[in-house]
Design a protein that fits this description.
Length: 397
Amino acid sequence: MYLTKEEEKILDGEYGEILRRCMNLLVSLGEIYGAEKLIEISSSQVSGVSYKTIGDYGLEFIEDLTKENIKVKVPTTLNPAGMDLDRWREMGISESFAEKQLRIINAFRKLDIEISCTCTPYLTGNVPRFGEHISWAESSAVSYANSILGAKTNREGGPLALASAIIGKTPYYGYHLDENRKANYIIKIDKEAKFKEESFYGALGYVVGEMLKKDIPYFEDLYRFKPSIEELKLLGATMAASGGIALYHAKNLTAEAKVKDVIENREVIEIGKEEIMEAYDKLNSADDIDLITVGCPHCSLKEIKEISYLLKNKKLKIDLWVCCSIHIKAISDRMNYTDTIEKAGGKIIKDTCMVVSPIKNLNIATNSGKASVYLPSFCKSNVLFDDIKEIIKRYSE
Ligand code: F3S
């Protein structure tokens, strides 16, 4: 792998041990994947933030990086933590968990990483432009950045995205190269397949992710359903969870499909109502529910507004968590959406989500395909997967 003189010096440890370690990680990974060089990135999104998922080993790894007082070189945002950083007691989080979680957050702050704690950085100011190289680790955000925005990132691991942020570069391979960004399959969807609202996109994502694993789909007629940005966010997140899809194209909807030919292989897969119904069957494992959650990926303001309208003058029979970023919550508070939701008995939970917070053994209702894939293993939960309108109708009065 070609390295500049400056990169060689960093690798030789001339600028300290932390930079050497970060460079070593980038070079080792680059060599494994046959990268010819490193390229500059314009931003990073770091995952592996919740103490629940990274544990003591992760905490020590991140604290270690702060020892030489280095800072990240590019704007860097952070994935959700394991708790709301202000209201963790209300969530029933233990003192010992909170103490470790706050140490993790403090270490990221010392590295000058924005304590955004959201998986939707593209809704809160970290918005890469078309064609820009970035190093993002959150799989749903990777899908969004590659597909909707036309930025270029591999689906990085947390440590690699962090090392890239510190060095300001990433290995040049995979989705950074135009020739690896072409679709392998054309997806056609029967009109009858869409018999639900937003949860349909999770069900569709589940089907396509399971079928294609890490390939790149091209949705030829998805645009007929007029999906919103929020619905595309649900689709991409679920394809990344049930398979490993980091990039998709969709006629008239995604960035690269609008400006160039993005199809390499014209094999067609048709998806009908039967496949979508099967997906609902597979994702649904509970009938009786303890908690409703929305915001996987984190809610936009529009989603919170819709939930507040659904809850106007209603009382929830069980808890509701609406997960979002601190940025979106601030506007929700100002618009009185938070007030409406809390009067109905729900909570706006920021900085965290139903999957990475330490909840366990609860039966959970959600409109998110990604959460429905992860909750059974991450939280030992059974899941009710449906449109939020249907869930609220069933569990409110
Ligand atoms: Fe975000 Fe948590 Fe889902 S990090 S994408 S809300 S699993």
